[in-house]
Design a protein that fits this description.
This protein is mainly α and about 250 residues long. About 50% of the residues lie in helices and about 5% in strands. The termini are far apart.
């Protein structure tokens, strides 16, 4: 299905000696961690806050189910790492590369051109090469303005994006806000729905979310009411309105 990410499991996964001896809770935790790492493109890294939800007993099983290569390893940062994750799953860099290729193809109006068959004639190839050479100089002179694209499918949160959000907008629920961001721009149409830099657009969206959560944000009417209620001291009198009749010498 287009736009979906999938995790791969070996058909012998459940029968592997390391996995076979796990309890149901540890088995479920291991699969959940694989899906988490695939979904958020962590290359097998599991944050302690996520791993700890499975409980210390379950984690202990995964950390000790093999003397040489346990299913889970605790690293110096305090996070955990899934053993052999990248043996079956795509790395974050590979997914980003594929997404970039898809975006570039979208700008060109479709999929990349198929590789030319070795049976096509040399003369035809030469003719096309000459035509491309003739037109390339004029194309460069005109210059190609950068064109916006619709939001990538899928729109992926990278580790760097999460680190930025944690530092810049710590009060925002990044996953929930990103889902709203994606739904909003998927539903938009026309020129407004195309952007040159979707990550910058995402950052601005999260900043607005953060601003909306700041306390004591008053509307102009509320600020005026607050000023009137506080009153002002004029000539030793407490004035609660701006009516000049109320101010006497």
């Amino acid at each position: 299905m287009a736009g979906k990410l999938f995790a791969k499991l070996d058909l012998d996964y459940a029968d592997h000696p390391k996995i076979e001896r796990l309890s149901d809770a540890a088995f479920r935790a291991h699969v959940s961690m694989i899906l988490y790492a695939r979904k958020y493109l962590t290359d097998g890294r599991i944050p302690a806050r996520y791993a700890n939800r499975f409980g210390s007993e379950t984690l202990s099983e995964l950390l000790t189910n093999d003397e040489a290569t346990p299913s889970l390893v605790r690293i110096d940062s305090g996070e955990y790492e899934l053993h052999g994750f990248l043996d079956l799953q795509e790395s974050r860099a590979k997914v980003a590369e594929r997404s970039q290729v898809n975006a570039e193809n979208g700008k060109k109006g479709g999929r990349p051109r198929k590789t030319r068959s070795v049976y096509e004639s040399v003369s035809e190839t030469k003719a096309e090469t000459e035509e491309e050479t003739d037109t390339s100089s004029s194309t460069k002179k005109r210059g190609a303005a950068k064109r916006g694209t619709r939001i990538p499918e899928p729109f992926m949160l990278t580790h760097e994006m999460r680190e930025w959000a944690s530092a810049e907008v710590p009060t925002v629920d990044v996953d929930a806000s990103t889902r709203r961001f994606v739904d909003y721009w998927r539903a938009e149409s026309g020129a407004k729905a195309t952007k040159l830099d979707w990550i910058a657009t995402w950052r601005n969206w999260l900043r607005r979310d953060a601003d909306s959560k700041k306390p004591n944000r008053l509307t102009p009417t509320e600020r005026a009411q607050q000023t009137a209620a506080a009153g002002r001291q004029v000539m030793g009198r407490q004035v609660t309105s701006l009516d000049p009749k109320e101010i006497t010498s």
